[in-house]
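Example record

The entry below shows one chain as it appears in the dataset: sequence first, then structure tokens.
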Amino acid sequence: METQKRHTLIDKCLDNEHQARRDLYEYIAPLMLGVARRYSRNRADADDIFQESMMNFFHRLHQLKDIERMEGWAKTIVVNEAIRFYRKNRNIIYTGNIEVTNNQNISNENIFTQMETKHLLQVIQELPDKMRMVINLFAIEGYKHEEIAEMLGISVGTSKSNLFDARKQIKRRIEKELKNIG
């Protein structure tokens, strides 16, 4: 969407014009729903995260400072809502002290390229909540372990350990599926 059209659309939304809100919703909803699905275990959770995120998006629209970064801003709203959702509903808050797992490279990293993105996302969705959150934040969103630790209320070591374990589980699952195919 071009800059001038964004400005006009957002201005109309801020003036509570119904059609403008609908147009902006239709533009931004697929992106936000996709992010919500990545962070959720199932469709119902994704829908809850998405709905709360959309309400936050429109409620906070007046706070958007750089209209060119609207998509990134919307994505951040969804990520924060997903974290809030799992803290509230899934007890994601870290309570123990987990040491960092050996940070060995998992061999055959190219195994991830042997499957379709849609299937990989399905495998990620099946991970335990903490692992799924960490791998999404690190590998997809690009956050550093220090940021993830702060966002999730865990230690940096736990973030690294969860990422390592998530990669290991994904690799095992893919290897098992490839073995069954061949």
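Notes for this example: The chain has eight helices and no strands. Residues 92-114 have pLDDT under 50 and may be disordered.
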